[in-house]
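F.,

This is the one I mentioned.
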């Protein structure tokens, strides 16, 4: 973060709730709406959808010096809302169905996203819907668009069609000491290809113009996404495979269900050896 704010050419897809773009920490950020119905801005600032979308956007795109982590405010944030503001807060966090998610990821791909953040869970899975979701994730892989997804907050050992996909970076949550959070899902694919990142008591932008704390794997995922955005800003010629490998440090076979801690500086040094 001391080396760059990110560059506008690096576009970050955010599949989440709508964003309160009038928040003072987001008002000057390069945020674009990529929804056909004009629903990317909050209509109800008290809704969980608006709160969640604004919070995650703050982690990525709030102004430097704000209460939010503000990882990559110089990058272009492509907001693709998927959570309804009419729905009550879910027990374990925001959720969507596979068909809606396929459409949202496709829209981000079409808008030129280099990476896509999925801080969400799936409901009502089915074999056909899972196949459509796998296909769109395959499409992202073929186009070199990195997908970062929350591991989930159900305290289970297991994976979903998203976190088990070989191109996705599943993200578990950790506390301030780097220890895995008790609520965070883990599993074979999460441990083998994923990372853990800060997810406990993180402060970011609230939907009514304030700053609020929150916890969860949804909070952890944008730390990985933002790291990738900064790395690609500094090494724009790097391939998606090289960036993904540098971030995940997946050079040896992992056998633990708990993924390693995100190490942004090691990822930077790895890419610097090759691209500078």
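My design for it:
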């Amino acid at each position: 973060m001391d080396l760059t704010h990110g560059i506008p050419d690096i576009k970050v897809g955010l599949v989440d709730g709508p964003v309160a773009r009038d928040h003072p920490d987001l008002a000057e950020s390069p945020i674009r709406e990529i929804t056909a119905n004009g629903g990317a801005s909050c209509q109800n600032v008290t809704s969980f959808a608006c709160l969640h979308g604004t919070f995650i956007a703050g982690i990525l795109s709030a102004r430097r010096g704000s209460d939010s982590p503000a990882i990559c405010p110089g990058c272009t944030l492509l907001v693709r809302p998927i959570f309804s503001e009419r729905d009550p807060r879910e027990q374990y966090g925001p959720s969507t169905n596979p068909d809606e998610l396929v459409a949202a990821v496709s829209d981000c791909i079409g808008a030129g996203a280099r990476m896509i953040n999925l801080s969400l869970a799936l409901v009502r899975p089915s074999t056909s819907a899972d196949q459509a979701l796998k296909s769109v994730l395959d499409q992202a892989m073929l186009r070199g668009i990195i997908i970062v997804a929350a591991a989930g907050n159900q305290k289970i050992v297991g994976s979903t069609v998203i976190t088990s996909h070989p191109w996705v970076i599943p993200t578990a949550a950790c506390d301030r000491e780097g220890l895995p959070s008790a609520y965070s899902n883990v599993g074979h694919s999460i441990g083998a290809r994923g990372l853990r990142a800060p997810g406990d008591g993180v402060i970011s932008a609230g939907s009514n113009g304030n700053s609020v704390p929150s916890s969860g794997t949804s909070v952890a995922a944008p730390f990985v996404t933002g790291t990738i955005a900064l790395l690609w800003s500094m090494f724009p010629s790097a391939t998606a495979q090289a960036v993904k490998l540098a971030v995940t440090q997946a050079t040896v076979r992992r056998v633990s269900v708990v993924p390693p801690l995100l190490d942004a500086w090691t990822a930077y040094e790895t890419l610097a050896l090759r691209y500078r």
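The CA atoms of residues 167 and 186 lie 17 Å apart.

Talk soon.
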